[in-house]
Amino acid sequence: MTAEYNALNSNSTWTLCPRPSHKHVIRNKWVYKLKQKSDGTIDRYKARLVAKGFEQQDGIDYTETFSQVIKPAAIRLIFAFAVHYDWIIRQLDVSNAFLHGQLTD
Which residues contact 1 (CB under 8 A, 6 or more apart)? Predict the structure, then answer.
């Protein structure tokens, strides 16, 4: 949790500001996950800070949603290309990924 919190601070993910009286504040929570190796031993502990999106109201707190998710068919296509062209496949674990977009109120 400390590593995630430090990453949020070092990336200037948020700044403390006064709460506008006319705005609804979306609360957040820490989500913990235990990553295990294939033999069942503990690999690492993970923590991430997530917004409680279920508290949002459509048209008030947001007007549209977008979740960038890769489809399984796209992964199979990439694997097929890799096999056909003899590409090397490597796994990459991104420890802190942030959406770099301008938020307005």
Answer: 30, 32, 47
Question: Domain residue spans in the chain?
Answer: 2-67
Give tens-digit pLDDT for 43-71: 888 888 888 877 777 777 777 776 677 88
Give the residue from 47, 56, 52, 57 showing the smallest Cα distance to 27. 52
43: helix, strand or coil = strand
Contacts 24+ apart (CB under 8 A), 20-23: 20/105, 23/105
- Whether pTM > 0.90 for this model: the answer is no
The CB density around residue 88, as the number of other CB atoms within 10 Å, is: 5
Cβ-based neighbours of 33, under 8 Å, separated by 6 or more: 45, 46, 47, 48
